[in-house]
Amino acid sequence: MSSLRIAPWADELPDDLTPQQGLLLAIDRIAWRNAGRPDPSEFGDWSDDEQLSYVFGRHSQDTLELGALKLRQIPQELLQTEGVSYLFLMNNRLEMLPPEFCEKLRLEGLVLDRNPLRSVPADLFEMPGLDNLSLSSTPILELPLPRHANPILKGLILDDMHWLDIPHGFLSSFPNLRALSFERSEQQRIPPDTFDCAQLVQLCVGGNPLKTLPSEIGRLDKLISLKLGDCQLTTLPKTLGKLTSLEAKAGSGPFGLHIAGNPFKDKELKRIAKLKNPAMTIEALAWARDNGTVGEAGS
User: Fold this and answer.
1) d(CA 245, CA 243)
2) pTM, 2 dp
3) Which of 286, 214, 197 is nearest to 250 (CA)?
4) pLDDT, tens digit only, all 299 positions of the chain
């Protein structure tokens, strides 16, 4: 392993990066950002590839990339910096967040994916200004209830959290939530307070062992993306047909209704589930209006 210090703008890290090297690199990146990311004093001895790596590594001034550095702790230097709005800490070895993390940082977006976090403090969901949070692929067992409603948080991603317990009342703490995803998280049902999130435009619950879709889904009339693929649904509720906003952008990226991979009993619905969008969305909503189940409320 090379003993040379890794340049903070390096876009490729050594396979044998140690936690000590990762921490040192994180500290260098923080210092580099705080100094306004100055250009190197001398480009003369650099190859074209090295110069390109530097240029492409210059993220925007409000973004800090500290992912995949094998960090076991939050660098103290991070807690003393200002002006970071988007912080990326995925693919590290963080088992906890220090209390001052939520007290001192003022973030808009935070990604903590694929860290061995077992729990997070309630303060995380009350950070001033934080409107997008991702905790995907962490072994968190239970999410703490915020102590008061948070109208700021707009996006929450909880994918691949196989041991997760979402307590009742947690989601309704975020009245302006617009995007919620907990795909492949072994959820047996959609948490009832999901349907209190009247501002939702995107709901992704695919890959969960959901056997029924509650009739309350009809309350989310702003949805333009609803992912239900690869669940255990055998039918659809009549109220799903009310979500006509799903048709507006169906077929464009993630938008529309996605129901492929479910063991539907009805032959026509099985056929529809094999279509591509926008046909899948249009025909599935029509099927729900004409043939959907009635009164299948969530428990």
Assistant:
1) 5
2) 0.90
3) 286
4) 445 678 887 778 888 899 999 999 999 999 988 877 655 544 556 666 665 555 555 556 788 999 999 999 999 999 999 999 999 999 999 999 998 999 999 999 999 999 999 999 999 999 999 999 999 999 999 999 999 999 999 999 999 999 899 999 999 999 999 999 999 999 999 999 999 999 999 999 999 999 999 999 999 999 999 999 999 999 999 999 999 999 999 999 889 999 999 999 999 999 999 999 999 999 999 999 999 999 755 54
Listed in sequence order, the residues at least 6 apart from 15 whose beta carbon sits closer than 8 Å to its beta carbon are: none
Determine how many CB atoms are found less than 10 A away from the CB of residue 174: 26
How many CA atoms are closer than 13 Å to the CA of 277, on its beta-carbon side?
A: 22
